Amino acid sequence: MVNFQTPSQAQLAERLGVGKSYISSVENGANISAQNLNKFAQALETDVKIFFEEDLLSLPLSAFRRIPHTPQEEKEYEKQKEAAKKRIRRDLNKLIAAVKIIHSEDES
Predict the structure, then answer these.
(1) Could you give the percent of the chain with pLDDT greater than 90?
(2) Hey, what CATH topology would domain 1-67 get?
(3) Based on the number of CB atoms within 10 Å of its own CB, is 86 exposed (0-12), middle (13-18) or buried (19 or more)?
């Protein structure tokens, strides 16, 4: 399963090669260069566009997807995605069947 846990300031600082105080200052609105913004996105394993969206709910779910780094991770991600699609189809079919039963009982 893919882990979506957010790294701590210390972990993020280590990944970026900066101090925790720099991470804190950026979190509190300090200016950041485009180069460092890209580094943040890579360290968080996400797309840089997530930093430019005020309403995160308007972003497509794919914006929150962890970026696979290896062919094995990509294969595992695709496998999980297909399994999720199967579960959604199964649950949708169950819901449709339940609605049909309820509808037929209402007509009786």
Answers:
(1) 2
(2) 434 Repressor (Amino-terminal Domain) (1.10.260)
(3) exposed
Q: How far is CA 95 from CA 83, 100, 101, 103, 106, in A?
A: 18, 9, 10, 12, 16
Asked if pLDDT for residue 26 goes beyond 50, the answer is: yes
**What residue ranges do the domains of the chain occupy?**
1-67, 68-108
Exposure class string for 96-107: b at 16+ Cβ within 10 A, else e: eeeeeeeeeeee
Q: Is the pLDDT of residue 108 over 50?
A: yes
